Amino acid sequence: MPSGIHSGHLRGEKHHRYKHGMRRSRLYSTWISMLARCIYPTTKCYPRYGGRGIRVCSDWFEFTSFANWALTHGYTDDLTIDRIDQDGDYEPSNCQFITRAENNARRRAPKKAVINEKGERFESIVAAARAYNRDQSRISAAVRGVKKTCAGLRWRYA
């Protein structure tokens, strides 16, 4: 673990060095999550981040440095941090703030086409969900066989 990062930071424990007054803020939570997925091997997302070699720049090991950058680069509570080059590190030149919908559209996971029993083909579960005005988790459940149908139709991967 990098110096200056106490494992308790990643578990949300109290630490005597909090001086910024933002420990309960969404920005602080974003920072902790970013660090955890890159440096803490027991984090669920670690294999997709730290396990692939994605790192956090040393300046951002201090919350105030990250917060200063974020607040001068468009951060608001309704946005998420995004790496422009998805194989690049978390660093000022490779990060931006975007909406959750934009972030979901940029996901690394390969998109699999789906088809319903009417023969309608969609490039992804997300596209099918938009077309049928349904939550993507419901169509995903139908595709995986967890549910029999969604929107009255059977679904499968194309």
Written overview of the protein:
- The structure is a single chain.
- This protein has 2 domains: 7-105, no CATH class; 114-157, no CATH class.
- Helix content is 31%, strand content 11%.
- The protein contains 6 helices and 5 strands, in the order αααββαββααβ.
- A 3-stranded antiparallel beta sheet has the order 4-3-5. Strands 1-2 form a two-stranded antiparallel ribbon.
- Strand 3 (114-116) and strand 4 (121-122) form a beta hairpin.
- Helix 5 packs across helix 6 (136-144).
- The protein is elongated.
- Mean pLDDT is 86; it is low at 11-16.
Quick tags:
elongated; 2 domains; 3-stranded antiparallel β-sheet; 5 strands; alpha+beta; 6 helices; single chain; two-stranded antiparallel ribbon; 158 residues
Query: Taking all residues together, what is the mean pLDDT?
Result: 86
Q: Give the low-pLDDT segments.
A: 11-16
* Gross geometry: elongated
The tally of strands reads: 5
Structural class: alpha+beta
How large is the count of helical segments? 6
How many domain modules? Answer: 2
Helix content: 25-40%
Looking across the biggest beta sheet, what order are the strands in? 4-3-5
Proportion of residues in β-strands = 5-15%
Major sheet characteristics: 3 strands, antiparallel
Spatial separation of the terminal alpha carbons: 43 Å
Q: Measured on Cα atoms, how large is the radius of gyration?
A: 19 Å
Q: Which sequence of SSEs, written as H and E, runs from N to C?
A: HHHEEHEEHHE
